[in-house]
Amino acid sequence: MAQKPSIPKGTRDFGPVETARRNYIFSTVSEVFRLFGYAQIETPAMENLSTLLGKYGDEGDKLLFKILNSGDAFADIDPGMLEDSNALAMKVCEKGLRYDLTVPFARFVVQHQNDIHFPFKRFQIQPVWRADRPQKGRYREFCQCDVDVVGSRSLLYELELVQIVDMVFERLGIDVCIKINNRKLLAGLAEVAGAADKMIDITVAIDKIDKIGLEAVKEELRGKGLTEEAISVIEPVLLLKGDNESKTAQMSRILASSETGMKGIAEISELFSLIASAGIRQKVELDLSLARGLNYYTGAIFEVKALDFEIGSICGGGRYDDLTGIFGLKDVSGVGISFGADRIYDVLLGLDKYPSSLGNAPDVLFANMGREAVAYVMPLCNRLREKGFSVVIFPDESKLGKQFDYAARNSIPFISINADSEAAAGTINLKNLARGVQQTFAKDDVEAMSDFLRKA
Amino acid sequence: MAQKPSIPKGTRDFGPVETARRNYIFSTVSEVFRLFGYAQIETPAMENLSTLLGKYGDEGDKLLFKILNSGDAFADIDPGMLEDSNALAMKVCEKGLRYDLTVPFARFVVQHQNDIHFPFKRFQIQPVWRADRPQKGRYREFCQCDVDVVGSRSLLYELELVQIVDMVFERLGIDVCIKINNRKLLAGLAEVAGAADKMIDITVAIDKIDKIGLEAVKEELRGKGLTEEAISVIEPVLLLKGDNESKTAQMSRILASSETGMKGIAEISELFSLIASAGIRQKVELDLSLARGLNYYTGAIFEVKALDFEIGSICGGGRYDDLTGIFGLKDVSGVGISFGADRIYDVLLGLDKYPSSLGNAPDVLFANMGREAVAYVMPLCNRLREKGFSVVIFPDESKLGKQFDYAARNSIPFISINADSEAAAGTINLKNLARGVQQTFAKDDVEAMSDFLRKA
Strand A120-129 to strand A414-416: parallel, antiparallel, or no bridges (unpaired)? Predict the structure, then answer.
C-alpha cells in the first residue's frame, strides 16, 4: 500500500464541521460589513513579487512564498548565479503568494483608481500565506477578513469600524474590550519628552508596565538613552488611571505643548464622543500601550481582545494616511481593521458559543425500502427541498439497522420510513430520532410535514 | 510617479459587482448542494508536489505551479544540476498549487479515512491554478465547484447529481441540456467491433459525426486501423436517432454480445427510469459522443450545455471506481460533477439573468447635515441595520449636491436628509431617488420606515 498522503506543514484540511464553523464566522462578519455599506472584492492569490517585496520589511520578504516561473525556469541561469541564492530566487520567480490583504488592496486601489468612487468601502475575506515556522496556532495558510475605507479622513469611519467590531462580537456572543490608541498621542509624548526619535521605545515601555513594573520600565528607558527629565515627563503616562475621559484629560495636560499631541487629543476626544452617541455595547478603552503597526498607522490604532478567553488580539487595525503611496497614488487616507478568523474560531470553540445547528447535517433521511418505495417518496423529497430542508435518501435497500446507523453517524435528526403499506395508504411517516416523536402525514401535506420538521 | 501596478497575466481582480455576481453563483450552488445533504470541506492551496505529480498526465505536470522551498532553496545545489531543469525544479520545490479539486479530495479521503463515514457526500468551492497559456476565457487562477459522493455504487447518486444540476440551473434561470453517456457502452461497442483497444478512437469518431459527416468519420476510423467489419458494427451507432428510450433500445441490440456493454445498458436504463420518476425539468439526453475524462471515468459520464448561449460545457463529471487507489485506498467508488463557475458567470451575463439587485449597494444614504444632525440619526441607522438594511452616513458635512452624487454613483436608492428642524420635530425623511417618492416618519417608527424601504 502506498504511503498515506499528507499535506505541507503549517497547512490544514477543513472537514465539514470546521468548514461550517468557519462559514458561520465569515457570514457573520460579511453580513455586518454589508450592513455598513462595505462591498466585497477579491484579488488573485498570486501577485507579482515586485508588488510584494519591500512592503513587509526584510523579515517579511523572507516569509514570502515564491512561485517558480512556468516553462523552463532555469534556462538562462549560469552556474555562477548559484552563489547568490537570493538573486537567483528573484530570477527564477516572478510571482509570490499574497502575504496579507492590505498590500493587494493598495495595489487594487491604484490599479483601478479610475473605476473607483471615493470614499471606497471594501471588505475582503481570503487566505494569505507566510513561510513562518509553523507552531501551535500559527499557520502557513490562514484567512484574513479585512474591512477598509479609503479616500476620506472623516472620523465617522473610525466610529464605523468600532460599530462593526461591536456588532460582529455581539452577534457572535463574545464579550470583548475594544482598545483604542492614536499614534499622534505617542508622537506628541515623545516630542514633549524631548525624545521625538524614541517614540517606539517609549511605547514599548508603556506596554511593559503591567508586566515588569514602574522601576524596571524606567530602567529600560534609561537604557534606551532617555534622560531623567524625559522619564519624568513620561512617568505620569505610565501611571495613567481612570476612565477614558479622565485619561484623555490627563493626557491633554501632558501634551499641551505639542501640536501633534493635541491633534491626537482632538481626534480621540471626538471619537469617544461619537462612540457615546452611537450606543456601543462592548467595552471601549483608551490604551496608550497599543503599538500595533506603528510604522504605518498615522492616527487611530485599534485592537480587540476577548474578555473571557486567553488569546492574543482577535482584531486590529488603524488609520493610515499613505497606504497607496507605495504604488504612486498620494494622499489617499484610509482606515481599516482585520478580523483574525483563526483566533475567533478558537474563542468561539473555547467558550462553546457556536450555534447548536450550523446547518451542516441533513434534516431528514428517507429510508430506502426498495425501488418502488423510493419512487414513491422522490417527489416529496423534492418538495421538502424546495421548502429549504436538506433531504437525503439512503442509497441502497439495506437492513434498517444500517440505515438508522447512517442517520446517527451523520447527526440527521429525522428519519422517514415508508414501504408498500404507506404507499398504498398515501401516507408518510416522520420520526424525530432523539425525542422518539413520530407522526403520520398525508403524502401531499408538505406544510404539516414542514411544521413538524421545524418544531419536533 | 511609480509605475502603475499590475497583476500576473491570467489572473484577475474581482471588484464589487463581479464579486457579488460570483457570490450569487456560489451561494446558489452551495444551497442546492446542502439541500441534497452534501457538506462543504476545504483543502489547502498548497499540496505536496508528490501528491500532485503524475495525476494529470505529462501535460498536466508541466502546468503545475511550483512553490520555491522557503529558507535558502539553493543551498545544496551544485552547478551540474543546472543541466536538468526539471530535476532541479523538483529539488528546490516540494510544494505546488492545487491544480483541481479532485486529487486533493482523493488525498483528503485517504488521509482522513478513519474520521469519514461512507458514503461521504462533500462539496468544495475553491480556486485552482494552472500554468496554461492565458487566452480569452482561460485563466491561470479560476474557481471550481465540485460535488462528489464516495463510498457507494448506488445509481441513486447519479440521479442525485442530475437532480442537483436540474435544480441549480432552474434557480439560475438557465435552460440546459444534460448529456449523459456511460463508459461501459463505449467499451462494449469497441468490444463488439472487435477493437477493444480502440475505444477512445471510436468515441472521438462518434464525436465528429455532426461536424465532418459519415464518410469522413469512416475514413478516419480506417486510418486508425479499424476493419470494414468493425466499421459496419459502429456505423449504426453513428447514425443513432430518436429519444433516449429508443436510442437505448437500439444500443441494447448492438451490444447484446458484450457483457460490459449490457451492464452499461442496464445502468443507463435504470438511470433514465430514475430520472423519469424524479421529475427533472431540464432536457436530458443520451449522447454517446461524450468522451470527457474517459481515462478515469468507469460508468456514467455527464456534461451540461447551455441551450441559449454558445460556450463549451458548463458542468461535467462522472462515475469513477478507483479515485483513491492512487493514494493506496482501493475500492472506493465515487461519482461527482464540477460546475464551471467562470463559464456560468459568462452565460448569466450574456443572457442577462443576474437578479437586478445582488445586494452589493447600500439601501439608504443618510446625508451629513453636521455633527448634531448625525448624532440625531445614528441610533436610527443602527436600528435599520438590525432590520437588515445596509445604511451609510455621508462622511463629511459637504454640499448636498456632492452627497446626492455619492448616492447616485454608488447606486443607493434612498436618501434621508434630516437637519435641525427634523430633529426638533422628531421626524425622519426618506426619499426614493429614482421614483421621487418621499415620506416623513416619526423617528421611532422603524417598522413603517422598513416597509417604505422594502416597497417604495
Answer: unpaired
